[in-house]
């Protein structure tokens, strides 16, 4: 079972199983983007999944295109979100993005880059579809967690299935940003129960296109 098949299988109970990383990233995105005026913003949401962030974005932004490579995840999202300012698109972001150049004001990328070996390509494509001074938000499982063996996984009737993942160091995100004309304007580490004596679970970075 490849990652796409895995997420298709996971879609049925993705919203209901205990998942600290999913829930913390949802909170982190809201906190990070609440500092931005979104009412006139057009958003490209990469890795929208079942719509956990799409719901919130739809109440803030002018228009959202939610993208995911999992047909079943998108089906779940479409059941929950029927507002006129949201549309969904099935796409593999490892392939060239087909959106118009400088079409979006904000690109969000949630819990997906761990599945992408070449993140430089994603940064390149994000730059191409963002308008000048556009923003690129990423929220990822913290590499410190990855060093300890944490990765996306879920229970199946045959046991726990672990998805294919790649470790990206914090410096890798900065290098990809620099290579593709982004500057970092915000970075934060997020902890379970805000306990900063533990290993951070999540990393968020907000880049701006130069």
Structure overview:
The protein is α/β, with parallel strands linked by helices and 210 residues long. The chain has a single domain, classed as Vaccinia Virus protein VP39 (Rossmann fold). Helices cover 30% and strands 29% of the residues. The protein has 7 helices and 9 strands; from the N terminus they run H-H-E-H-E-H-E-E-H-E-H-E-E-H-E-E. The protein has helices at residues 3-10, 20-33, 54-58, 71-80, 119-129, 143-147, 170-179, and strands at 42-46, 63-68, 86-90, 104-110, 130-141, 153-156, 159-162, 182-190, 202-209. The protein is globular, with a radius of gyration of 16 Å. The chain starts with a helix and ends with a strand. The mean pLDDT is 92.
Write the layout of secondary structure elements.
Blueprint: H1 3-10, H2 20-33, E1 42-46, H3 54-58, E2 63-68, H4 71-80, E3 86-90, E4 104-110, H5 119-129, E5 130-141, H6 143-147, E6 153-156, E7 159-162, H7 170-179, E8 182-190, E9 202-209
Parallel strand pairs: 1-2, 1-4, 2-3, 4-5
Antiparallel strand pairs: 5-9, 6-7, 8-9
List keywords for this structure.
210 residues; Rossmann fold; 7 helices; 29% strand; two-stranded antiparallel sheet; alpha/beta; seven-stranded mixed sheet
CATH class bucket: Alpha Beta
Tell me roughly what share of residues is in helical segments: 25-40%
Count, helices = 7
Form type: globular
Relevant CATH superfamily: Vaccinia Virus protein VP39
Number of strands: 9
Radius of gyration, whole Å: 16 Å
What multimeric state do the chains show?
single chain
What's the number of domains?
1
Structural class, by secondary structure, is alpha/beta
The sequence of SSEs as H and E is: HHEHEHEEHEHEEHEE
Which spans have pLDDT < 50 for at least 5 consecutive residues?
none
What's the story with the biggest beta sheet?
7 strands, mixed
Rounded average pLDDT: 92
């Amino acid at each position: 079972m490849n990652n796409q098949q895995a997420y298709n299988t996971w879609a049925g109970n993705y919203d209901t199983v205990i998942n600290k990383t999913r829930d913390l990233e949802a909170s982190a995105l809201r906190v990070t983007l609440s500092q931005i005026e979104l009412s006139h913003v057009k958003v490209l949401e990469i890795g929208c999944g079942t719509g956990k962030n799409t719901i919130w974005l739809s109440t803030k932004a002018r228009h959202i295109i939610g993208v995911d490579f999992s047909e079943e995840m998108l089906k779940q999202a479409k059941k929950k979100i029927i507002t006129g300012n949201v549309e969904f698109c099935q796409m593999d972001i490892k392939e060239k993005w087909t959106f118009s150049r400088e079409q979006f004001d904000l690109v969000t990328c949630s819990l997906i880059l761990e599945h992408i070996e070449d993140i430089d390509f994603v940064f390149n494509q994000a730059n191409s579809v963002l308008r000048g001074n556009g923003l690129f938000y990423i929220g990822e499982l913290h590499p410190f967690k990855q060093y300890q063996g944490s990765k996306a996984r879920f229970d199946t009737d045959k046991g726990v299935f672990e998805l294919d993942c790649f470790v990206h160091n914090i410096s890798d995100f900065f290098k990809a940003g620099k290579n593709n004309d982004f500057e970092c304007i915000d970075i934060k580490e997020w902890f379970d129960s805000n306990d900063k004596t533990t290993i951070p679970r999540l990393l968020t970075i907000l880049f701006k296109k130069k």
